[in-house]
């Protein structure tokens, strides 16, 4: 008789559902014997990283026997200059996912609660539950709202109690793509008590267009010491494989996050790549332009096919496919196209599609047209 390890696990861990990542290309190749595969499932930059970042990685290879700079001085200095924040406001992470974990570890306990929205990024429930804290899920916006399925900040505010320690807000949100306007988010920050940490996860901020009125929350840092803004190099900067992200907060909050951080949580290649990637404004602009064109093309297809979609400020589109999204996902797999079903997010009739290069989008639309005809 082996030990019943499940009963030994921490209460939150016992019922924890692991994160479901996008299907890797190599897995589809193994399972279906396909070779020409298009992956539009994890909101990665289809252009890849800046050539400057790749060069920096090559140069950093020489030093692989050495531990990375545990304080990430160069990357922090570059970010500090770029964002006009003190270095003491920065916390680096092994992806921004790591930073979300640090927030949970620093501020949540089994006696406390975290608030997030229905259809919000899946990592928020995971980090909350792993600590044993209680998740309070706020209803999302109704279908007739300007931002259907998006965060309802009034509903989130109504969930604040004496036990609330953290609220997680993704702006823009994944998987919906919806976003909060400047005035709404500012009103929320004003309304929430200072003892509640407000995480604004800006993983897709680079893709936001000026006419969307989707705010850069860094503007409020000086006013709200409980604000934690998280960013990543995984999306627009094309460095998902290296794992590097960061938080910007008031220095006292950054100090606490730093205490629970692993000593060398960001590896040396990631530090070098991210520092160089920040310098390449042109690559970022090109990436945004590819996304803008691709989004237009996908939207035109949806209109033409009579499909619904959620408004998106990111590099992906959540499309209402008129049947179980998972069925369409499986049909697309047979045609060598990987997308992301979002039934686990409470959106069973939607499919999340990352925006790719022109050629990748053409493959997707061909295959999707074919599937929807059947
Ligand atoms: C992809 C994503 C992240 C972070 O990813 P990392 O690779 O860990 O930086 C964070 N938040 C949202 C909403 C995302 O979609």
3D structure, described in words:
This protein has two domains: 120 residues, Aspartate Aminotransferase, domain 1; 226 residues, Aspartate Aminotransferase, domain 2 (3-Layer(aba) Sandwich). By secondary structure, the chain is an alpha/beta fold. The chain is built from 14 helices and 13 strands. Helices cover 39% and strands 15% of the residues. α5 packs parallel to α11, α6 runs parallel beside α7 and α6 packs across α10. The model has no long low-confidence stretch (mean pLDDT 97). The strands form three sheets. The protein has a seven-stranded mixed beta sheet with strand order 2-8-7-6-5-3-4, sandwiched between helices. It binds pyridoxal-5'-phosphate.
Proper CATH architecture of the largest domain: 3-Layer(aba) Sandwich
CATH C-level name of the largest domain:
Alpha Beta
Low-confidence stretches: none
Mean pLDDT: 97
| Biggest sheet layout | 7 strands, mixed
Molecular shape: globular
Q: Give the distance, in angstroms, between the N- and C-terminal Cα atoms.
A: 52 Å
In short:
It contains 14 helices and 13 strands. By secondary structure, it is α/β, with parallel strands linked by helices.
Element layout with pairings:
Blueprint: H1 5-8, H2 11-14, H3 25-32, E1 38-39, H4 51-60, H5 73-83, E2 90-93, H6 96-107, E3 113-117, H7 123-131, E4 134-138, H8 153-158, E5 164-170, H9 182-191, E6 197-201, E7 227-232, E8 245-249, H10 251-260, H11 268-279, H12 281-305, E9 308-309, E10 316-320, H13 325-334, E11 337-338, E12 340-341, E13 350-354, H14 358-373
Parallel strand pairs: 1-11, 3-4, 3-5, 5-6, 6-7
Antiparallel strand pairs: 2-8, 7-8, 9-10, 10-13, 12-13
Helix pairs in contact: 4-11, 5-11, 6-7, 6-10, 12-14
Pyridoxal-5'-phosphate (PLP) binds next to helix 6.
């Amino acid at each position: 008789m082996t030990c019943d390890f499940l009963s030994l696990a921490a209460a939150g861990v016992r019922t924890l559902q692991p994160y479901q990542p996008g299907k890797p290309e190599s897995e589809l190749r193994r399972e279906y014997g396909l070779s020409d595969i298009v992956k539009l499932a994890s909101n990665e930059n289809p252009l890849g990283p800046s050539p400057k970042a790749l060069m920096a990685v090559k140069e950093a290879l020489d030093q692989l026997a050495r531990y990375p700079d545990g304080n990430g001085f160069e990357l922090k200095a570059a970010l500090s200059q770029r964002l006009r924040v003190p270095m003491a406001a920065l916390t680096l992470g092994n992806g921004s996912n790591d930073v979300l974990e640090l927030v949970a570890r620093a501020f949540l306990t089994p006696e406390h609660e975290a608030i997030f929205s229905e259809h919000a990024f899946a990592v928020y429930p995971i980090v909350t539950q792993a600590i044993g804290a209680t998740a309070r899920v706020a209803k999302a916006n109704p279908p007739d709202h300007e931002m259907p399925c998006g965060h309802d900040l009034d509903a989130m505010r109504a969930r604040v109690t004496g036990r609330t320690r953290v609220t997680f807000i993704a702006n823009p949100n994944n998987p919906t793509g919806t976003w909060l306007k400047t005035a709404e988010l500012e009103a929320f920050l004003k309304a929430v008590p200072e003892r509640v940490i407000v995480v604004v996860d800006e993983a897709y901020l680079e893709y936001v267009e000026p006419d969307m009125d989707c705010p850069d929350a860094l503007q409020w840092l000086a006013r709200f010491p409980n604000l934690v803004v998280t960013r990543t190099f995984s999306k627009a900067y094309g460095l998902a494989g290296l794992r590097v992200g960061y938080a910007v907060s008031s220095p006292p909050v950054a100090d606490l996050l730093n205490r629970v951080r692993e000593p060398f949580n960001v590896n040396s290649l990631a530090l070098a790549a991210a520092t160089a990637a920040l310098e390449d404004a042109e690559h970022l602009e090109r990436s945004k332009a590819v996304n803008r064109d691709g989004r237009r093309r996908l939207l035109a297809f949806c209109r033409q096919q009579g499909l619904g979609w959620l408004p998106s400020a990111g590099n992906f589109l959540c499309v209402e496919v008129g049947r179980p999204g998972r069925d369409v996902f499986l049909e697309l797999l047979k045609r060598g196209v990987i997308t992301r079903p979002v039934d686990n997010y409470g959106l069973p009739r939607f499919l999340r599609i990352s925006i790719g290069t022109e050629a990748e989008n053409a493959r997707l639309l061909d295959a999707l047209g074919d599937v929807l005809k059947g």
